[in-house]
Amino acid sequence: MARQYSRTASAKVGRAMKERKAGTLKSGRSGRKVRSRKQAIAIGLSEARRAGKKVPPKKSSKKSSKRKTSKTRTSKK
């Protein structure tokens, strides 16, 4: 079976994890220190994506805004 992530992508994630452990990994615009393991992995993967490495696309968050109309909410009295 083929690799899902390239070796370079896993190297970028490894580098981000080391920086997080050392306390030097900073997040996007705010520049705050990253403490979360998951966030460090996400930063490494996004850097790999920007570099054009083999990384699956981000999972889109599904915001279900299913609003029931007033017709379906009619209550029997």
Shape: elongated
The radius of gyration computed from the alpha-carbon positions, rounded to a whole number of angstroms, is 20 Å
| Helical residues, percent | 25-40%
Low-confidence residue ranges: none
Q: On the 0-100 scale, what is the average pLDDT?
A: 86
How many β-strand stretches? 0
Helices and strands in order:
Elements: H1 7-22, H2 37-50
Helix pairs in contact: 1-2
In a few lines, what is going on in this structure?
This protein has 77 residues and is mainly α.
Task: Characterise the protein shown here.
- The chain is mostly helical.
- The protein has a domain at 7-50.
- It is built from two helices and no strands.
- It has helices at residues 7-22, 37-50.
- α1 crosses α2.
- The longest helix has 16 residues, at 7-22.
- It is elongated and about 65 Å long.
- The termini are far apart.
- The mean pLDDT is 86.
